C-alpha cells in the first residue's frame, strides 16, 4: 500500500498539471500533495487514511455531502440505459428535459429556459454571448460592455477570466480588457470611509456604478454581472440595501442583470437561490456546483422570459443559434442533477442551512468575535468567513508575505478540518456541505479557534 501511495505521489508530481497550483513547488515536491480516496457525509479520507471534515465542500460544491447512494445509482442507471445523446437541433433525453423543468420550478419568478453547460466558466461565457446576441437582435450593436465587480469571480475562460475581478486570474495571460469593466466591490469591512453606515456604503457603490455607466455612455453598457455574495473574492455578503440600490441604477439605463449563482444556487444561503434571499430580479442566472453537488460536471444559464422572447425573435430571423457544446445537457450529468435536487428536498437541506447556518454563525461569533486578531466574522446561511487582522482597532492588515491565512488553514488541517485560505487577504473561508450537523459545526469552530491561537497567540 505504501509503495502504491509513493508511486501515485511520484506520478502526480511528474505527470499531472494541476489547476491553481504553484507548479514548480509541486513538481519538485516542496509543497504537500494529498490524494483523496473516498468521502462520506461531510468527511473525506485520503490514501494515507487521514480523515478530514471538509468545511469547504470541495470547492463550495458538494452540497448534499459525499457518498450519496441515490446519486451514484442514478448515474449508473443512466450510463446503462443511455450514456449520451446530444441536444442539438431539438434533441433531448428524458433526464435533461426533466432537470430543465425542475430547475425552472425552483428558480425565481419570470425565468423561462435553461441552457446547459459543463462548468460555471462556460455558463458565463454563454451568458456573455447571449447578452451580445440580445443587443444585436434589438439593433443596439454598441451596447456591448459588461460591468462586474473587483473581487468578483466568474470563471477562468478568456472572457470570464476578464470578468473575474481578481488579478491572479488575469495578469500574465493578456486577457482582453475590453469590453469588460470593473466597479467597486461591496466590501463593507474594507470600505475606505469607516464612518459610513451599510446603507450609505450601498448608496456609494451604486453611485460608483452610475458614474462608470455615465462616463462610458449608457448606450454602450449591456449588462452587470455579480454574485449575490462575493465568493472567491473573500466571502463577503453585501451591505444592507446593496442589491436594491444597484438594481435601481441598472433599470434606469436598461442594463441587463446577471446573477452568478454558481455558489449560491440550490440552497447555500438558506433559500433555493441567492436572488430570493436578496430580492434580486435577474435577466440571467448562472448555475453550476450545487446543481449536481459536483457528482458530475453540469452548469446552466437560466434565461428570463424577457430575454427568451427576444432571442426567439432573433433566431426566427437569423437562423439557429450558433452556440453549442457537445456535452450540453449530458444525460449522465442531468441524471445526477435530478437525484441531487430530489435529495435536497427529501432531506430538507435548505431548512437545515437556515437552522445550522445560524448556529454555526453564532458559534463563530461567540468563539472568535472578541479575539484581537479577528477583524470580521461574516456570512449568510452556510457560507462564512473570518478575516484576520494585525490590529482590529485601526483595521491594520497583516503583511501578505507572512501568509497568516494559509498558516491558520494548515493548522486547522492538522486538527482534521479543511477550510480555505481565500486568495486575497487573510480570510478563512467556510462553505461546508448543506447537511452539516450542529456537532460538526462546533467541531469546525473549535478547530478554527485553536488554529488561530496556535498561529497568532
Ligand atoms: N462563478 C462563480 C461565482 C464561481 O464561484 C465559480 C467557481 N468557483 C465560477 C463561476 C466558475 O465555475 P467553474 O470553476 O465551474 O468554471
UniProtKB/TrEMBL annotation:
Keyword Transferase in record: yes
E.C. number(s) listed in UniProt: 2.6.1.-
Record-linked SUPFAM superfamilies: PLP-dependent transferases
InterPro entries, per database record: Aminotrans_3 (IPR005814), Aminotrans_3_PPA_site (IPR049704), PyrdxlP-dep_Trfase (IPR015424), PyrdxlP-dep_Trfase_major (IPR015421), PyrdxlP-dep_Trfase_small (IPR015422)
Cofactor dependence: pyridoxal 5'-phosphate
EC class of the enzyme, as a word: transferase
Keywords: Aminotransferase, Pyridoxal phosphate, Transferase
One Gene Ontology CC term in the entry: cytosol
Keyword match Cytoplasm: no
Protein name: L-2,4-diaminobutyrate transaminase
Organism this protein belongs to: Allorhizobium borbori
Amino acid at each position: 500500500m505504501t509503495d502504491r501511495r509513493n508511486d501515485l505521489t511520484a506520478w502526480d508530481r511528474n505527470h499531472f498539471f494541476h489547476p491553481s497550483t504553484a507548479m514548480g513547488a509541486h513538481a519538485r515536491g516542496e509543497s504537500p500533495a494529498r490524494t483523496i480516496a473516498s468521502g462520506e457525509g461531510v468527511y473525506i479520507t485520503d490514501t494515507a487514511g487521514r480523515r478530514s471534515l471538509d468545511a469547504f465542500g470541495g470547492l463550495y460544491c458538494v452540497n448534499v455531502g459525499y457518498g450519496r447512494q441515490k446519486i451514484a445509482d442514478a448515474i449508473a442507471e443512466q450510463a446503462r440505459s443511455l450514456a449520451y445523446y446530444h441536444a442539438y437541433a431539438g434533441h433531448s433525453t428524458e433526464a435533461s428535459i426533466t432537470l430543465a423543468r425542475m430547475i425552472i420550478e425552483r428558480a425565481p419568478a419570470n425565468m423561462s429556459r435553461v441552457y446547459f453547460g459543463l462548468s460555471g466558466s462556460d455558463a458565463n461565457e454563454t451568458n456573455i454571448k447571449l447578452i451580445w446576441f440580445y443587443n444585436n437582435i434589438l439593433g443596439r450593436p454598441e451596447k456591448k460592455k459588461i460591468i462586474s465587480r473587483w473581487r468578483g469571480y466568474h470563471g477562468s475562460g478568456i472572457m470570464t477570466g476578464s470578468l473575474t475581478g481578481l488579478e491572479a486570474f488575469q495578469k500574465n495571460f493578456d486577457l482582453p480588457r475590453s469590453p469588460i469593466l470593473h466597479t467597486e466591490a461591496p466590501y463593507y469591512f474594507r470600505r475606505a470611509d469607516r464612518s459610513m453606515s451599510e446603507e450609505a456604503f450601498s448608496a456609494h457603490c451604486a453611485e460608483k456604478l452610475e458614474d462608470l455607466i455615465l462616463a462610458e455612455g449608457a448606450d454602450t453598457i449591456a449588462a452587470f454581472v455579480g454574485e449575490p455574495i462575493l465568493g472567491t473574492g473573500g466571502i463577503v455578503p453585501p451591505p444592507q440595501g446593496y442589491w436594491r440600490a444597484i438594481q435601481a441604477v441598472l433599470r434606469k439605463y436598461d442594463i441587463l442583470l446577471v446573477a452568478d449563482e454558481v455558489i449560491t444556487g440550490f440552497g447555500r444561503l438558506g433559500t433555493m437561490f441567492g436572488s430570493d434571499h436578496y430580492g434580486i430580479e435577474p435577466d440571467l442566472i448562472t448555475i453550476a456546483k450545487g446543481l449536481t453537488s459536483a457528482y458530475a460536471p453540469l452548469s446552466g444559464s437560466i434565461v428570463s422570459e424577457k430575454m427568451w422572447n427576444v432571442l426567439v425573435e432573433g433566431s426566427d430571423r437569423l437562423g439557429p443559434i450558433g452556440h453549442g457544446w457537445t456535452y450540453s445537457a449530458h444525460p449522465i450529468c442531468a441524471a445526477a442533477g435530478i437525484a441531487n435536487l430530489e435529495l435536497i428536498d427529501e432531506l430538507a437541506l435548505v431548512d437545515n442551512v437556515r437552522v445550522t447556518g445560524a448556529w454555526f454563525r453564532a458559534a463563530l461569533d461567540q468563539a472568535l468575535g472578541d479575539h484581537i486578531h479577528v477583524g470580521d466574522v461574516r456570512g449568510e446561511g452556510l457560507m462564512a468567513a473570518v478575516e484576520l487582522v494585525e490590529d482590529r482597532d485601526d483595521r491594520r492588515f497583516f503583511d501578505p508575505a507572512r501568509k497568516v491565512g494559509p498558516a491558520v488553514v494548515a493548522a486547522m488541517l492538522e486538527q482534521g478540518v479543511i477550510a480555505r485560505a481565500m486568495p486575497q487577504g487573510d480570510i478563512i473561508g467556510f462553505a461546508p456541505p448543506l447537511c452539516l450537523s450542529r456537532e460538526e459545526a462546533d467541531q469546525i469552530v473549535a478547530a478554527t479557534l485553536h488554529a488561530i491561537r496556535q498561529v497568532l497567540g
